[in-house]
Amino acid sequence: MRVLVTGAAGQVGSEAVRAFSQKGHDVVATTRAELDITDRDSVMQAITTVRPDAVVHAAAFTAVDACEGDPERALLANALGTRFVADAARRVGAHVCYLSTDYVFRGDLDRPYHEWDETGPLSSYGRSKLGGERELSDGDTVVRTSWVFGRTGPNMVKTVLRLLADDPKRELRFVDDQHGHPTSAADLARMLERVVTYRLPGTFHVTNQGATTWHGFVQDVVAAAGGSRDQVVPIKTADLDPPRPAPRPANSVLDNTALRLSGIPLLPHYREPLERLVRELLPA
């Protein structure tokens, strides 16, 4: 297939370019500098010129707290920008795979969220990403994911390793009342390739397995880097100083129900790709 990837310099977009290329697809990688998804004419020209079979729409405004301070920019990038992509894709018959988020949920269920649960975002970021979901056609694909980590861009793993590089024994304080599934960008991208190749329609939750808290995840990062789990101290979200501008769902554990019921093998436990990534990022 010919596949156009938006946000190709980002954490998931860069891995999507790699995953699709490795499977022999003709990949057209577009970064923000090359394709501004908030410019309708640019989006229309790019997609109608390339005429891809599929569009992996990974470009987004993902700075959660910044979105809270500028909700119109969030809607422009994540909702209206997706409208532009979906409109152009329809004109050339391209299948769209849109990357969405656990933040579309309120986070107050006492179980993991499946694909058919009611949404109810708490933040501007979540509302804007849900707006993007609603711009797609029936035959397109929404892939919701959570707590992504990888080689490219800012993420929790790289943040923790940077803190440890400054002081390997330092105390780290992370919340233990937010729950989710950490997800490897590389593993996610390989599943995106499978979903797009088979043009699977509808909504899919795609995460690595293993629910944890940010406190537990950081403990795993520290342990993988050779440190002590005991140096990671649990705190409550209410104790964050300064407090975060955007509210986070307390429960953003996504059940991969649609994949499982479709007979598609789920991604492995997050500790497997985490340990590989930490070995790759640590200096030799």
What features would you describe in this structure?
- The chain is globular, with a radius of gyration of 19 Å.
- Helix 1 packs across helix 7 (185-197) and helix 2 runs parallel beside helix 4 (71-92).
- Strand 4 (95-101), helix 5 (124-133) and strand 5 form a beta-alpha-beta unit.
- The chain has helices at 11-22, 40-50, 64-69, 71-92, 124-133, 156-166, 185-197, 214-224, 257-261, 271-281, and strands at residues 2-6, 26-29, 54-57, 95-101, 141-145, 148-149, 172-175, 179-180, 183-184, 202-205, 212-213, 232-235, 251-252.
- A six-stranded parallel β-sheet has the order 2-1-3-4-5-10, sandwiched between helices. Strands 11-8-13 form a three-stranded mixed β-sheet.
- It has a domain at 2-153 and 184-209 and 253-268: Rossmann fold.
- The model has no long low-confidence stretch (mean pLDDT 97).
- The longest helix has 22 residues, at 71-92.
- The chain has ten helices and 13 strands.
- It is α/β, with parallel strands linked by helices.
